[in-house]
């Protein structure tokens, strides 16, 4: 069960994050317009202030798609 208080707190944090990083929500909106599908590769890279980097990627399988469908439905229910 989702705690409504925590949900409102997360919403406030997301709103502040969106103001600080306006390109990221636009990126997510563009991604939602062309849904990610099986075979797509998701890559995440973090560059630390000292220049060190860490990165990972994954190729989506059909099993992964249920999570993405659920996330899409959750975000549309706001």
Sheet with the most strands: spatial strand order: 1-2
The unreliable regions are none
Whole-angstrom Rg: 15 Å
Structural class, judged by helices and strands? Answer: alpha+beta
Helix share of residues? Answer: 55-70%
What is the N-to-C succession of helices and strands?
HHEEH
The average pLDDT value, as a whole number, equals: 88
- Give the amount of beta strand, in percent: 15-25%
Shape: globular
Tally of individual domains:
2
Helix count, per DSSP?
A: 3
Sheet having the most strands: 2 strands, antiparallel
**How far from one another are the termini?**
16 Å
Total count of strands = 2
Description:
The protein folds into two domains: 1-34; 37-78, no CATH class. Helix content is 55%, strand content 18%. It is built from three helices and two strands, in the order H-H-E-E-H. The protein has helices spanning 4-20, 23-33, 62-76; strands at 41-47, 53-59. Strand 1 (41-47) and strand 2 form a beta hairpin. It is globular, with a radius of gyration of 15 Å.
